[in-house]
Amino acid sequence: MTEKEREQIALFRYGLIAPLLNGQVDPKAYFEELEGKVHQIPYYGERKIAVKTIKEWLLNYRRHGFEALKPKMRADRGNSRRLSPDDQDHILAIRKKFLHMPVSVFYEHLIQQGEITKNQISYSTINRLLKKYNLAGKIFSAAPERKRFAYEKVNILWQADLSHGPYIKVKGKVKKTFLIAYIDDCSRLVPYAQFFTSEGFDGLRIVTKEALIRRGKPTMIYADNGKIYRSETLQYACAQLGITLTHTQPYDPQSKGKIERFFKTVQTRFYPLLETDPVGSLEELNERFWRWLEEDYHRRVHASLDGKTPHEVFHSQLENITFLDDPSILDVIFMKRVHRKVKADGTISLNKQLYEVPAKFIGYSVDLRIDDTGVFIFEDNKKVAEAKPVSLTDNARVKRVRSPFSLTQLAEESKEANRHV
């Protein structure tokens, strides 16, 4: 099991315990709902999960954080053994991809692929395993019921989304803009929003970090089903901060009506101001938007707030807001993560660029974190080294230290030559 797979499994486990962690569900009812339910688990495939197991995950997270949700590395790797629970899960995951095969053919397939050997695992062992989990059929779950909701306290839930903005000129070229925003479900206050010229995750990273710093930490984030809201970086960040990240169904804008209504307000009240007085840059667009947001939207009476403004409702509940003790942790939490194996020459390849790492990592898979300042190697969530871009011309001029074996051989050759002089 790779480190990437361990992290994906941990994210899945966090997704199950997050509603319990944040007190958004009744534990008894939640466990009854999960009892007997089949889950699609990364690496393992379809499995049922015991309530006792979920309670153990919840306890481990509360004691040791996100890292405690990762499966433990096997200590007996490479040794002969019977099927362990991890081995069983791995075979079940493979079986799901080859349901059309008879068990006898599937057994031969496992042997041919090097997953098992006849001497280790018998046909009857595999046959019993597959029968136990009844993999011949597919199990379908009923569609979830959707209910209208509204929270009485601020920072319980933030709705998130992206909207198409106006066209502006950037360096003489016309560019389309995109507005990325969060809205607090209770107060309708916008924790943070900003226009960008791209729909990429970099914009969401900026907006999320600023929203957390300015307005505190929400219990839940209810996001669109789009690519940037399903990014692993956002999932990791929410898991590290103890935030539940949930997603709407595709093509279901009604389920996130409050953020949709905010975008409509922007279109009807802010965009007309740009028609009479156009902006000349992205910076000017954002400056004018932020001014309108604070002076107009946040301080205008909202129809659903009983004659109050978003600003009044949010600031009347400051005692319910959890601010970050150390906002600088966001810089690490929101770094992009990738895994690479270090080559024999001490390099890794990343985005078609070679990077050098310390020689002690040669042959190992390393956890890389990336931000605007560089590429770094992390171990146990701590920065331990930096990966630097390779300069082939500089390396050609670097003096190499001779191997001690080469120096010994050279000395012996020199002595031998002196004897014949």
TrEMBL record:
Gene3D superfamilies (alphabetical): Ribonuclease H-like superfamily/Ribonuclease H
User: Tell me, what is one Gene Ontology molecular-function annotation carried by this entry?
Assistant: nucleic acid binding
Pfam families per the UniProt record, alphabetical = HTH_32, Mu-transpos_C, rve
> Which example biological process does GO assign this protein?
DNA integration
Annotated Integrase catalytic domain ranges read 140-318
Identify this protein by name. Transposase
Q: Which organism is it from?
A: Compostibacillus humi
